[in-house]
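[User] At your convenience, examine this fold.
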Amino acid sequence: MGSRQVTSWHGKNITVAGLGVSGISAARALAGLGAVVTVVDNGDGDAHRARAAELAGRGIEVRLGRLADGAHAGEVLPEGTELVVTSPGWKPDSPLFAAAAEAGVDVVGDVEIAWLLRESRPGRKAAPWLAITGTNGKTTTTQMLASILKAAGLRTAAVGNIGTPIVDVVTGEEEYDVLAVELSSYQLHWAPSLRAHSAAVLNLAPDHLDWHGSMEAYAADKGRIYEGNTVACVYNVADRATEDLVAEADVEEGCRAIGFTLGAPGPSMLGVVDGILVDRAFVENRQKNAQELAEVKDVNPPAPHNIANALAAAALARAFGVEPRAVRDGLRNFRPDAHRVAHVDEVDGVVYVDDSKATNTHAAEASLAAFETVVWIAGGLAKGATFDELVRKSAKGLRGVVLIGADRALIAEALARHAPEVPVVDLERTDTGAMLAAVREAARLAEPGDTVLLAPACASMDMFANYNKRGDAFADAVRELAAGKA
């Protein structure tokens, strides 16, 4: 499905799957353009009913819970549906989508709708998209990019899998020169028409395989971000899989492959030389010349994986023509979100760091590598992950490990195989005091100069509502520990 195929939305029968933020956003926008919209969702709680009532006031039909025939609303394709718009979390094998396929009806996501609607406001030019995906670092890199673009005086916003729904942004009143767009593998799966100005895949590691079915399918969905790029496909020199995706992409004539590396860059790359972030891609005579962009100390925090994020953001900004000074100023102005390698406190010479956002092994590995000696707090829901490679690579820096959560035994087994000499505390408790107990055990294992690091390598939902709540619990526990030492 491409943008030229939608000449008018008026009267088009569209089913929106999911009554979450992105589903509501798409339903409102499409109904506003004259489409006949039906929203379906298997939920039927008070929050669902309140949202349904709000949409009903806009002439949008909402079907919740079980229907009269006993079937779930989210599994039945409404009669006459011409297009299904799905929320990102709905799996491709959902019964609703099987019914759509049987009826010859396309299924797309909210990002696809945003792409098709980006020129829907008369007299307004659509803003180009600079797009970012990867297993880890997407949000930070997107926010860094937006900060750089703002420092260049451009009207921009960080959108997509972050902040305001992207449909609301492209159809809203505010005009933008360029958008920094974070995209998940889910969103890319359902966005066949997307054609970014430039895009980056930061890294690839096994994640969400229960949704995609295989690593190959996951990587292929990530790689969709490069399709049709016009200026630059940015890849990670240290992660060959990202470069392979560039090689497989069908891009516009003249689009370039641009690498980023923590080492000295070759031509058509950005990298680091003597503590300086340098550009050998967007300069004249890149075989011999390099342009200084910023210093490593301008990156907050200056951990290796975050420097890589900064280089990727800089590459996309430079692809859009941003001057070096704006790259430096944008990185200096950037402040990371909470729970991303966040310094909480120092107690008795031990630093406590909250990286609750490290919800998979790839993120935890990067976090552990940023510190010399670590007492590691880990565990939660593994989501099918294995931990042998993570432990093997990180073992030499481990002072001790405190394990929490439902799947902690998987990490304990990997530690027994690859780091048998490292002390391990296995906490069975899952009550609200479990994190305080974990922090106290970590403090007992730690020595002055160590870092106690919450980088769980697992999802949080076994014990906490989300990774934010888990990080908050860690920070509260550290503050209680510090108060007890006062």
Observations:
- The longest helix spans residues 467-485.
